[in-house]
């Protein structure tokens, strides 16, 4: 259990804490500026989410720098990412901040690519993150933060940035998923031949 894996585990343990602040049924104090309103628990959830999301790059960097890339890390890292994004998106559906069908599309892609990666690992190869995969992660994080903070500061100028960011994230997510399967078709072909 090296430092990189501990950071990855910390990301997993932050998931229920974020959900607690997102879904807790307690009247927290809130901030009101003109017609804009946000509760302190939303701000706390957003801050913890930003911290958790930022550890995604950190654990990989530390593992590579210290030459401590492990099979456990290869398994836990994508799992932690998917748990974080999935839990927050489902919570946002519960809060009525995003349509369920968009979340289903995003989550389906996430688990499909995770499955593809696990098959590749069983065959002794690693599917590295593509540029579209990295763009997808950035788009998802941006959309989630915008939704968590009630479209601040764009709400003041009537720009639906949170809605735009959500659509961009969904489109890039689907495209990157297709890209992974097209570029790694040999993994599935190899599995079929060995059965």
Automatic annotation (TrEMBL):
Keywords (A to Z) from UniProt: Cell membrane, Lipid biosynthesis, Lipid metabolism, Membrane, Phospholipid biosynthesis, Phospholipid metabolism, Transferase, Transmembrane, Transmembrane helix
Enzymatic reactions: a CDP-1,2-diacyl-sn-glycerol + sn-glycerol 3-phosphate = a 1,2-diacyl-sn-glycero-3-phospho-(1'-sn-glycero-3'-phosphate) + CMP + H(+)
Example of a GO biological process term: phosphatidylglycerol biosynthetic process
E.C. no: 2.7.8.5
Functional summary from the UniProt entry: This protein catalyzes the committed step to the synthesis of the acidic phospholipids.
Family: Belongs to the CDP-alcohol phosphatidyltransferase class-I family.
InterPro entries (alphabetical): CDP-alcohol_PTase-I, CDP-OH_P_trans, CDP-OH_PTrfase_TM_dom, CDP_ALCOHOL_P_TRANSF_CS, Phosphatidylglycerol_P_synth
Organism classification: Bacteria, Bacillati, Bacillota, Bacilli, Bacillales
Pfam families, alphabetized: CDP-OH_P_transf (PF01066)
Pathway: Phospholipid metabolism; phosphatidylglycerol biosynthesis; phosphatidylglycerol from CDP-diacylglycerol: step 1/2; Lipid metabolism
Source organism: Paenibacillus lutrae
Localization per record: Cell membrane
GO terms assigned for molecular function: CDP-diacylglycerol-glycerol-3-phosphate 3-phosphatidyltransferase activity
Transmembrane stretches, start-end: 12-31, 43-62, 138-157, 163-182
Membrane topology, from the record: Multi-pass membrane protein
The protein's name: CDP-diacylglycerol--glycerol-3-phosphate 3-phosphatidyltransferase
Keyword Transferase applies: yes
Broad class of where this protein is predominantly found: membrane
Annotated Gene Ontology cellular component terms: plasma membrane
Family annotation (Gene3D superfamilies): 1.20.120.1760
Keyword Ribosomal protein (UniProt): no
């Amino acid at each position: 259990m090296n430092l990189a894996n501990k950071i990855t585990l910390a990301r997993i343990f932050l998931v229920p804490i974020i959900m607690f602040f997102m879904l807790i049924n307690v009247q927290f104090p809130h901030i009101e500026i003109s017609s804009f309103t946000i509760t302190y628990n939303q701000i706390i959830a957003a801050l913890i989410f930003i911290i958790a999301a930022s550890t995604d790059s950190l654990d990989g960097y530390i593992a590579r720098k210290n030459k401590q890339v492990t099979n456990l890390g290869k398994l836990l890292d994508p799992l932690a990412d998917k748990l974080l994004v999935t839990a927050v998106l489902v919570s946002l559906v519960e809060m009525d901040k995003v349509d369920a069908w968009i979340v289903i599309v995003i989550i389906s892609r996430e688990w499909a690519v995770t499955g593809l990666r696990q098959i590749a690992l069983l065959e002794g190869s690693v599917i590295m993150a593509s540029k579209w995969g990295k763009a997808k992660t950035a788009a998802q994080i941006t959309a989630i933060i915008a939704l968590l903070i009630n479209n601040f500061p764009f709400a003041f100028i009537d720009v639906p940035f949170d809605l735009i960011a959500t659509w961009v994230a969904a489109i890039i997510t689907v495209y990157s998923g297709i890209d992974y399967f097209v570029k790694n078709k040999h993994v599935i072909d190899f599995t079929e031949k060995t059965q």
